[in-house]
């Protein structure tokens, strides 16, 4: 017997809600985008004519027919909205970053456990095709023991835009925007680092929040560099990973965000051409067997990305058919490094990740 679809309420219809959450939720047959909380009903109805629009988040949260509430609002509102939704008995997905303070994130995890509700954080970049490929290469030992990784997310956006992400508000800036993606990927690949050193800067004329960062994560015999800037016209490789047997280099971003911005609607399972990185070179370089130090460069077929897999897994987790794809304890670890990085930047030194700094979970 076919189960009824799970009804989803989406809070926020800015860039994240419109570009990512609404189309990815709607791609999954087990989910129904039933309601959106937005101050711009016309904008929502232009994309989703049959969806109920509520002017205020509280109106959506109190609906007792919703199986899941997804929060895609400015970062400093994540904690109060997620808290209200959990208290109302809803399962909750929060866009990254989890919150703007580690203690707030810990409170939400404890509340979700008390209320016995699913709580998850939208770390969708785990389902980028290039990252999925790298993760497999590392797991298979194709690169040998990895000793160095550079992970960059650079743009060329010289003009400061009038939006909350580039304001002087709490949770704004590139470290809170891109940092969670790069930190989460590093944690998934290599686990907990011993220490972090972060530099942040305001490089553009008129910048109000950090628009450049460089973070160094120190492991045992492994060094990870995480970098993002807004004045990079000639981009460096997205990934450059070096091991004792080979190196992996990937140019350009995962293709899914561009497709979503262009209005392409994904499906689940994904259509054959979804998440394909056409024209974005990736390669493994290893030493040849000639004994002369020469190298063999081999193209790598990238896995197809699938951000909608996150929401497919969320639907299964709500029905107790599969585990939570991003347990909140894993998002707490990201928050811990975000905060420790800020302290590092303020003190201008590397800080060790001590047990006291670790997330409670």
Question: Short summary of the structure?
Answer:
The chain is of the alpha/beta class and 361 residues long.
Descriptive report:
With 361 residues, the protein is α/β, with parallel strands linked by helices. It folds into 2 domains: 6-124 and 309-325, NAD(P)-binding Rossmann-like Domain (Rossmann fold), CATH 3.40.50; 129-253 and 271-304 and 339-347, Dihydrodipicolinate Reductase, domain 2. It is 32% helix and 23% strand. It has 11 helices and 15 strands. It has helices at residues 15-27, 41-47, 57-61, 78-87, 102-115, 129-140, 174-177, 179-190, 256-261, 308-318, 328-347, and strands spanning 6-11, 31-37, 52-54, 68-71, 91-95, 119-122, 146-152, 195-201, 212-219, 222-229, 239-243, 246-250, 282-287, 295-299, 351-352. Strands 14-13-12-11-7-10-9-8-15 form a 9-stranded mixed sheet. A hairpin with a 2-residue loop joins strand 11 and strand 12 (246-250). Helix 4 (78-87) packs parallel to helix 5 (102-115) and helix 8 (179-190) packs across helix 11 (328-347). The longest helix is centred in the last third of the chain and has 20 residues, at 328-347. The protein is globular. The mean pLDDT is 95.
């Amino acid at each position: 017997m076919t189960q009824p679809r799970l009804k989803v309420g989406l809070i926020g219809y800015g860039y994240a809600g419109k570009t990512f959450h609404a189309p990815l939720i709607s791609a999954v047959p087990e989910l129904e985008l039933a309601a959106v909380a937005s101050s711009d009903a016309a904008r929502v109805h232009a994309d989703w004519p049959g969806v109920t629009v509520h002017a205020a988040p509280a109106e959506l949260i109190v609906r007792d027919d919703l199986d899941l509430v997804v929060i895609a609002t400015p970062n400093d509102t994540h904690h109060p909205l997620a808290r209200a939704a959990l208290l109302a008995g809803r399962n909750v997905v929060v866009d990254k970053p989890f919150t703007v303070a580690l203690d707030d994130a810990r409170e939400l995890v404890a509340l979700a456990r008390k209320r016995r509700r699913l709580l998850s954080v939208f770390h969708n970049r785990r389902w980028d095709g290039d990252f999925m490929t790298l993760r497999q290469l590392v797991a298979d030992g194709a690169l040998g023991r990895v000793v160095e990784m550079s992970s960059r997310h650079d743009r060329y956006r010289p003009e400061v835009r009038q939006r909350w992400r580039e304001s002087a508000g709490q949770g704004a800036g590139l470290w809170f925007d891109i940092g969670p993606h790069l930190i989460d990927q590093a944690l998934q690949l290599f686990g907990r680092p011993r220490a972090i050193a972060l530099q942040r800067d305001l490089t553009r004329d008129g910048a109000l929040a950090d628009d450049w960062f460089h973070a160094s994560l120190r492991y045992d015999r492994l060094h990870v560099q995480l970098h993002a800037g807004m004045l990079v016209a000639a981009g460096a490789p997205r990934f450059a990973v070096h091991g004792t047997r080979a190196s992996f280099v990937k140019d350009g971003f995962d293709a899914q965000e561009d497709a979503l911005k262009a209005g392409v609607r994904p499906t689940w399972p994904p259509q054959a051409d979804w998440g394909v990185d056409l024209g974005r070179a990736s390669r493994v370089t290893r030493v040849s067997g000639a004994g002369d130090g020469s190298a063999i460069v081999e193209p790598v077929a990238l896995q197809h990305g699938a951000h909608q897999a996150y929401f497919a897994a969320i639907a299964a987790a709500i029905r107790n058919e599969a585990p939570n794809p991003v347990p909140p304890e894993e998002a707490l670890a990201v928050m811990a490094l975000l905060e420790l990085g800020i302290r590092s930047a303020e003190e201008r030194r590397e800080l060790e990740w001590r047990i006291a700094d670790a997330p409670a979970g």
